[in-house]
Amino acid sequence: MKVFVIGIAGGIGRRLAKALIARGDEAIGPVRRPEQIDQLADHGVPSIQGDILTMSVAELAQAMHGSDAVVFTAGAGGKGGPAATSAIDGDGPRKLANAAALAGVRRYLLVSVFPEAWRERHMNDNFEHYMLQKKKAETELVRSGLDWVILRPSALTDDPGTGMVDLGLAQTHREIARDDVAATIVDLLHAPEVSRTILEVTGGSTVIATAIGAVTDPSHESR
Ligand SMILES: NC(=O)c1ccc[n+]([C@@H]2O[C@H](COP(=O)([O-])OP(=O)(O)OC[C@H]3O[C@@H](n4cnc5c(N)ncnc54)[C@H](OP(=O)(O)O)[C@@H]3O)[C@@H](O)[C@H]2O)c1
């Protein structure tokens, strides 16, 4: 399987690319800074220089040519203010969907966020704007007609992965290691029966493959 990853130099993105390559798949995606190409190559991850904001839909479609799936795991990360959040988190996923449709790539996994994430912390206006943009992106992908999966991870950590998660249509928001999000994405990409659904994932107590099995087969043992 060849996967085109937007955000491939990011925390989840590079873990995802490395995990895909480790299991014999291919991963590639655009990075904004030339030095990131060498940094990823040091880990055996190929990339191209590109920015989803400046690449046209046709250029993105060309770049993903031959891919079996696309993953959007980019984010402004609070840098650049609300305009950057709107452009990357809000509009980026739709642009990627348009490019995927043009390139004939049907499978699309969007990394989103729990709607109730950190509500108890009474976050600032920029965070609320981020949440609105993530929901906008979800809504547009759901309408795209592609073979989409939206994965909402809870708060991300750089702790080592455990290989165990809680995954389902609704979960309690806690924390999850980026390693475990990446591993979940790998297994979801290889589970074509999981399609057109929104899943929430957080650190938990179920082996990832078992948790994914339980999504499509409720009789599957999930604990
Ligand atoms: N942080 C959390 O707790 C949390 C919780 C739930 C969901 N999420 C979501 O999880 C996803 C990944 O999180 P993460 O921590 O892995 O993010 P990250 O480390 O900030 O990585 C995001 C990547 O996106 C890239 N990017 C930004 N704008 C781009 C553009 N215009 N074109 C190409 N690439 C671009 C960044 O490039 P540069 O390296 O050039 O900056 C960066 O490498 C995000 O969508 C985020 O909203 C985060």
From TrEMBL:
Q: Which PANTHER family match?
A: FLAVIN REDUCTASE-RELATED, UPF0659 PROTEIN YMR090W
Gene3D superfamilies registered for this protein in UniProt: NAD(P)-binding Rossmann-like Domain
Q: Which InterPro entries match?
A: NAD(P)-bd_dom, NAD(P)-bd_dom_sf
> What name does this protein carry?
NAD-dependent dehydratase
Per the database record, which ranges form the NAD(P)-binding domain?
A: 7-192
Q: Name one Pfam family in it.
A: NAD_binding_10
